[in-house]
Each structure stands twice: as C-alpha cells, then as structure tokens.
Design brief:
Elements: E1 19-20, E2 25-27, E3 35-42, E4 59-67, E5 70-77, H1 81-89, E6 118-122, E7 125-129, E8 136-139, E9 145-147, E10 167-168, E11 175-180, E12 189-195, E13 201-208, E14 219-220, E15 224-229, E16 232-234, H2 236-240, E17 246-248, E18 254-260, E19 269-273, E20 281-287, E21 290-297, E22 322-329, E23 338-346, E24 363-369, E25 380-386, E26 391-396, E27 401-403, E28 407-410, E29 420-428, E30 434-441, E31 451-458, E32 464-469
Antiparallel strand pairs: 1-5, 2-31, 3-4, 3-32, 4-5, 6-7, 7-8, 8-9, 10-11, 11-12, 12-13, 14-15, 15-18, 16-17, 18-19, 20-21, 21-22, 22-23, 24-25, 25-26, 27-29, 28-29, 29-30, 30-31
The chain binds 4-hydroxy-3-methoxybenzaldehyde and fe (iii) ion.
Length: 475
C-alpha cells in the first residue's frame, strides 16, 4: 500500500479485537483534551486472494476515548454485510478489489463495502466509509455495528456510493459528500449532496465526468465544489482477466472540475491539465473570485499496488506526493488551472484543523519522512506547515517508530486555528509493532510528545482518522 518502510507498519494486519481500560500514560493527558480519536484501516478477515490488494481488507475501527485524564481503547471489526456473510461460512466470498465478477453466488445483492477507509461522526454514530458503497453505521460509544448499509433513513439509494472523504461545512455543520459511479458499477456519474446536522438531505445534483476515474477526495468551499480527476481509470479488460478495478493510464489527461454548491450541476466545468496523480485534499477555500484547492500531487501513479496500464513497473519517485495549490478563476475564463508546489515535504496524508474544511485556513499537519533524507525514509516525522509564512515545524520520531496519519484536536471549541493537540499512533518496529498514542502540542511539534498512551499490543491498521470533541457527543 505504501512504498516506504517507515509508514508501512500503519497497514500491518492484526485481526484481534481489543479492549483496554485505563491505558498507562507517560507524561500527562492535558486537562483540556477530551473526546475520541477514531480511526479505521483494512485488516483482512481472511487472507487476501492472489492478485488482490491491501485496499480490499475488511475495515477495523478503533477509538482512543480520552476523558478526565484517562484513556480507554477499543477496536471492533465493522460488521458489514460482506463481513457477516464471510463470517458465517468462514471464508472469503468477495475475493477481488472492486471486481464483483469473482464473487461467490451466495453474496449476490449484498453490499460489497469493506468500510475500511475513513470514519466520520454523525449524531450518535460513527460512519465507516468505503468509496464504492454507502456508509456503515457504528455506535459512537461501543463501536458495535448498528446499520450495515446506512442510507440516512432511505434518503440515499441503497446502491449509491458515498465518498470516504466527505467534508463538514465550517459554517453550517452540514456533511458535504459525493458518490462516483453513482448510476451503477462503471458509470460516469457523480452524485453530489449535502446532509444537515439533523440528518436531512438538503441538496443534491448529478454530474458526469470525462472518463471513469477513481475520485478519492474532493474540495468544498463556501459556494463551490471541486474535483481533481486523475488517470487512475477503470480497466474493464483487466477486470475481465480477474484483476482489480483500476489501472494507471498515462495517456489520459487530468482534469480539475468545479461547480456551484446548491446549483443543479449544469455549470460544471472540467479544465484540462497535464497528467498528474495524488489522492488527498488538505484544504480548500474561495477568495477574491478564485478557488484554491490545496492537495497532494504526484507526477504519476501514486499507488505501488495499482498496475500501470502499459505494464511499466511502479515508479516510486514519480509516485511521491507533495503539497500543491491548484487555482482557478471562478468568474473569468480558464485556459488551464494554476498549479504550484508548496513545500519540499513528502506528504501523502495531509490534514487540517477540521473546523476549517471549507474556509480560508493557515495550517496543515502530516506525517512525512525526514526531509533531510526523504528518499530513504530513514525516519518518520510529524510536521505542521504554515501557509502564511510558507515554513514548517517538524518532530522527528526515533528511527524504530512508524507513524500513522495524525488528527488535530482543538484545545477548546472556540480555540484559534491550530491551537490544540496533534494525535497520532506510532508502531514500534523493534517491539513486534506494539503501539502508542502520541499527543503533541500542535503549536510546538518540535518539543515532541507531551503524553504517550501505551497499548499492550499492536494497534489495528489505519488509513484515516477523525477527532470527536467532547461537546460533539450526544448527552
Ligand atoms: C484509497 C484507499 C482505498 C481505496 C481507494 O488511499 C483509495 C486511497 C483503503 O482503500 O479503496
Ligand atoms: Fe483517503
């Protein structure tokens, strides 16, 4: 899943569901840190079939619940329809990533979701997300699965995909989301929609993309939605041979698309650019008639586990991502889009203070290799970038530690942007991957962890995580 050995332990399979009450803490949990750090990753229920990829492991969710200076840890597999069917017969029934043609006949009509990519909170639920399917709803406190296919009470079609990277609108608190291949497997349709805090769908539009691409993430601003379409395209021929959904087709173009929020989608413009890759948005906003879309961008195929269509071997240097700022004019004509590299840090999983998902923002946080020796990934760092000064702060972990994607937790509901803590899991490469939760002061990363919460075991695998503030827990 990743070409580097330092972040690699993040994806090590575990299988065991774990409960630990009162984890030992080195240092002190800050008094103003209260809430839950949730995360999910693929943890294959049964061994992956030959040719399958780690993106297809079943989702395993975990939470560090922090309250009154104490930390309880819990992890549970997501009981998706797929998980439950496989559990009954004790074997894999959907053996290939996003290729239903090899499925066991007994699972026809069931959701193929692994729920393994991201988690967000909605009311008293954690929604575990996989971009090819609707969410799976888990109890916020217990992590027990309460609804394997969550449709917001029937407001979304049971077979409509839901992105793993919804945004929470900074002004309304609405969940802004989309689903691609929305009109069925392989369709070029994208459904874009918005759900308010009460769970009501308040807006929806449908648009089409120039070709069927993996639309992993997107950008939302006050009045606009933007997509970055990369040449990671559906490959029907490869699927007929029993392979995965995607291959990298270097002959396809990259497009930046933007449209009005709350419109009917007919204003969508796709602007063509040179072939680039990359998956994740850091932040986005509009200002003075321009839309700014900050994201990681690679020169070519970002994934070592996804084949190049022309059969070329994976090119690690071309697949390395850096933060870039993409710019378009919202009003005038666009003959292309602006693209500027922001920092020399390798940053495949950048995060912001999530209170700023749709508005101007200043800071980004990420795990990255030591910039003094980025290619060899000799050590992992947590970094904060500052767009105002175009500079960064770093904490470098010991070389025996791998770091997962961090989340930002504000010190108070109304704390300044970036005033808070950075939380991330570290796996000890020299202790059979035993893990700790690290808590750093987000304004002084270079000081290193102010508290280390110890697990007795390996943490379950992680792709993405989410912070739920204490005031966001229903009473
Ligand atoms: C990603 C991860 C996935 C997936 C598609 O990081 C894209 C990007 C864990 O699964 O299915
Ligand atoms: Fe992602």
């Amino acid at each position: 899943m990743t070409q580097n050995p330092v972040l690699g332990a993040t994806y090590a399979s575990l299988r065991a569901e774990v409960d630990v009450r009162d984890c030992p803490v080195d240092g002190r949990i800050p008094e103003n840190l209260s809430g839950g750090f949730y995360a999910v990753g693929p943890d294959p229920q049964y061994p992956l079939a030959p040719g399958n990829i780690p993106f297809d492991g079943e989702g395993h969710v975990r939470v560090f619940r922090i309250r009154n200076g104490r930390v309880d840890y819990r992890s549970r597999y997501v009981r998706t329809e797929r998980y439950l069917a496989q559990d009954r017969v004790r074997r894999s029934l959907m053996p290939m990533y996003r290729n239903p043609s090899l499925d066991d006949p007994s699972v026809q009509g069931l959701s193929r979701s692994t729920a393994n990519t991201h988690v967000i909170q909605h009311q008293n639920l954690i929604l575990a997300l996989k971009e090819d399917s609707p969410p799976t709803a888990l109890d916020l406190n217990t992590l027990e699965t309460v609804e394997p296919v969550y449709t917001f009470g029937g407001q979304l079609p049971r077979d409509q995909p839901f992105t793993a990277h919804p945004k929470v609108c900074s002004r309304t608190g609405n969940i802004v989301a989309f689903g691609y291949e929305a009109r069925g497997f392989g369709s070029d349709s994208i459904a874009v929609f918005e759900i308010d805090k009460q769970g009501r769908k308040v807006w929806g539009a449908e648009v089409r993309m120039p070709y069927v691409s993996s639309v992993h993430d997107f950008a939302v601003t006050e009045n606009h939605i933007a997509f970055f379409l990369i040449p990671l395209a559906i490959d029907p021929e490869q699927m007929r041979r029993g392979g995965i959904h995607w291959s990298w087709d270097k002959d396809k173009k990259t497009f930046l698309g933007f449209m009005r929020r709350y419109g009917d989608g007919t204003d969508l413009q796709w602007i063509e650019g040179p072939a680039r890759g990359g998956s994740h948005t850091l932040g986005a906003f509009e200002d003075g008639g321009k839309l700014y879309f900050d994201r990681e961008v690679t020169a070519a195929n970002p994934y070592s586990v996804i084949p190049n269509k022309d059969g070329a071997p994976y090119d690690a240097a071309a697949g390395t991502s850096y933060l870039h700022r993409l710019t378009v004019n919202l009003n005038g004509r666009n003959s292309g889009y602006g693209i500027e590299k922001l920092y020399p840090l390798i940053a495949p999983l950048p995060r912001q203070d999530d209170r700023y998902n749709t508005v101007p923002y200043r800071y980004g946080f990420m795990g990255c290799p030591d910039p003094a020796d980025p290619v060899r990934w000799k050590a992992a760092c947590y970094a904060r970038v500052d767009h105002q000064t175009r500079s960064y702060q770093l904490w470098k972990a010991p070389a025996t530690q791998s770091l997962g994607e961090p989340v930002f937790a504000p010190k108070r509901v109304d704390a300044r942007e970036g005033e808070g803590y950075l939380l991330g899991v570290t796996w000890h490469l020299d202790q059979s991957l035993r893990a700790d939760l690290l808590i750093l002061d987000a304004e002084h990363l270079e000081d290193g962890p102010i508290a280390t919460v110890q697990l007795p075991v390996q943490a379950s695998p992680q792709i993405h995580g989410w912070w739920v503030r204490e005031d966001q827990y229903p009473p």
